[in-house]
């Protein structure tokens, strides 16, 4: 459907945070001078969270003492995963010294290092479906735009193969089994199986070289199959068995949704919709295009998106969600800037395709 990009762009360039203005100019318009970019980045570096992340960086480049979320007595941004995601989402640039040193730490730090918070264990992402600290690491590398510097091609292929597996089996029930633990039944994946998860989707959404027509169409068919709601295994997922039950890193459950209705109001999961549009799936997945159309219908005559969204998925930046680029939401305008920016990206990628 028709969508007036310019009104949203004008609203954001007038009202939004420096990082949103930077991304609108660079990512959407493709028109920013080196001087403009440098000035906007300088403003981002004055934000309290940037200074907090920089101050917690260790000598080897690692951010804070945690990895997949904060450790005890640390704030939500003082860890390697969330810190690098924040820097990447703020478009601080690949040459930013804090981000560059954090990426270097991903190269020099063994996956069995205790900073990964797995007690020295390596959970092989090729053995355990939808799991493994290296998947999280590779998603951070992809988000930061470092896939051309740090080789994550095996994990990109694994992400593709994990979605392809959805098409090869009837359902998740075919590749999982029940383990009884302390009298409770837990569904776990069979060893060396594949199944898509949040971090596979993150990796694919933020890399490019895998994009072929065949891969995009395969992903579209897999996503459509995951969205089935007429099956008894709807909302069934799986954990890993590593001698004990280990939760996956966001296994995508059967019955995958892009939004939900509450009290007669539809709420959109902006991150899911944005990432699927980044994959180039909008022309091939009717449910995705329908969600894009619903979102477009909430954009007013001034280009402001008035959609009801899942705020838990939008606010802040964390391990499994968060897309907030504004420093705070003390005014409605700032909150609307974050929502409108994500809506703009969704419309941009939905219309751009792959």
Strand order of the largest sheet: 5-6-7
Radius of gyration: 20 Å
Could you give a short account of the major beta sheet? 3 strands, mixed
Shape: globular
Beta-strand level of the residues, as a percent range? 5-15%
Spans of 5+ residues with little confidence (pLDDT < 50)? none
Mean pLDDT: 95
- How far from one another are the termini? 18 Å
Write down the secondary-structure element order. HHHHHHHHEEHHEEEEHHEHH
Number of helices: 14
Helix content: 40-55%
Number of strands: 7
Task: State the secondary-structure class.
Answer: mainly alpha
Word description of this protein:
The chain is mostly helical. Among the domains are: 1-30 and 257-348, no CATH class; 154-252, no CATH class. 44% of the residues lie in helices and 7% in strands. It has helices at residues 5-15, 18-28, 34-44, 48-55, 80-89, 97-108, 133-143, 153-168, 198-205, 213-226, 270-278, 286-296, 311-314, 332-352; strands spanning 176-181, 184-189, 240-241, 245-246, 259-262, 265-268, 308-309. Strands 5-6-7 form a 3-stranded mixed beta sheet. A two-stranded antiparallel ribbon has the order 1-2. A hairpin with a 2-residue loop joins β1 (176-181) and β2. α5 packs parallel to α7, α7 runs parallel beside α9 and α8 (153-168) packs across α10. The chain is globular, with a radius of gyration of 20 Å. The mean pLDDT is 95.
């Amino acid at each position: 459907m028709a969508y007036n990009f310019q009104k949203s762009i004008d609203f954001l360039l007038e009202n939004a945070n420096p990082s949103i203005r930077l991304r609108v100019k660079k990512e959407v318009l493709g028109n920013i001078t080196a001087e403009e970019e440098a000035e906007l980045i300088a403003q981002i570096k004055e934000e309290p969270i940037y200074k907090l992340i920089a101050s917690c960086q260790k000598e080897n480049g690692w951010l804070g003492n945690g990895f997949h979320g904060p450790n005890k007595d640390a704030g939500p941004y003082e860890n390697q995963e969330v810190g690098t995601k924040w820097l990447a989402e703020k478009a601080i640039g690949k040459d930013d010294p804090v981000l560059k040193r954090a990426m270097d730490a991903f190269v020099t730090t063994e996956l069995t290092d205790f900073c990964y918070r797995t007690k020295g264990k390596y959970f092989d992402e090729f053995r355990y479906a939808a799991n493994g600290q290296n998947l999280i690491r590779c998603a951070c590398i992809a988000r930061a735009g470092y896939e051309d510097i740090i080789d994550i091609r095996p994990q990109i292929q694994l992400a593709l193969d994990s979605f392809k597996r959805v098409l090869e089996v009837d359902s998740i029930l075919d590749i999982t089994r029940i383990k009884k633990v302390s009298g409770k039944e837990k569904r776990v994946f069979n060893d060396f199986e594949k199944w898509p998860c949040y971090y596979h989707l993150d990796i694919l959404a933020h890399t490019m070289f895998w994009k072929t027509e065949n891969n995009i169409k395969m992903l579209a068919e897999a996503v459509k199959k995951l969205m089935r709601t007429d099956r008894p295994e709807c909302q069934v997922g799986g954990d890993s068995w590593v001698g004990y039950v280990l939760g996956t890193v966001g296994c995508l459950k059967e019955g995958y949704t892009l939004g939900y209705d509450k009290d007669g109001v539809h709420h959109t999961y902006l991150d899911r919709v944005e990432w699927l549009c980044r994959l180039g799936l909008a022309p091939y997945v009717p449910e995705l295009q329908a969600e894009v159309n619903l979102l477009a219908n909430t954009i007013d005559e001034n280009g402001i998106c008035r959609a009801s969204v899942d705020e838990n998925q939008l606010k802040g930046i964390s391990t499994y969600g968060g897309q907030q680029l504004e420093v705070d939401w003390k005014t409605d305008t700032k909150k609307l800037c974050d929502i409108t920016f994500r809506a703009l990206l969704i419309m941009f990628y939905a219309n751009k395709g792959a």
